[in-house]
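To illustrate this point, what follows is a protein record of this kind.

___
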Amino acid sequence: MRRLLLALPFALLPLAIAQAADAHDHDHDHDHQHASLGAHEHGVGHLNAVLEGQSLELELESPAMNLVGFEHQATTDADKAKVVAARKQLEQPLVLFSLPQAAGCVISTQELNSPLFGDKPDADHDHDDHATDGKGAAAEEPHHDHSEIHAHYQFTCATPTALKNLDLANLFKTFPATRKIQVQLIGPSGQQGVEATSAATTLKF
């Protein structure tokens, strides 16, 4: 039942991206089409955050390029080390999301998924990216090599009133290739869609 909390923000995420594209890229039809579908974009991640009662749920989706610097399967020792390091950092969400100790949050469940972690690639995503560009030779070659990293966390917080903000500063510091994060936030004050950057990392619930 808890996972249903994220159905609403995920449904709205492509709309939020489309609206942002309208505001910034209204004269670039191809870019607008690409962004309005919530497409894979290097440097951009997506985060859903839901605070309900004592339950906090965070779901992060990011191109692997933002977190490890590449999207192909790791074959060299150096690449494998980068994947291992990124996974270890993602396995410490209390640090990554700077959750205040006063909130008394403990991890209930966490799940990490990515083709780079040995999970099955999302074939639909790959094919959609390739098929929607009907320009043949003009298609961007890297599309077939897209890899995403998904991280899903659930916390139980003893004092949720201490969770007034969500600070993404450590996330940007840990993964500096991430330029911005499109956020859907649901908390006591309602729902909001915001864009976080390394210069504006604090989100208010």
User: Anything to note?
Assistant: The chain has one domain: 43-132+143-204.
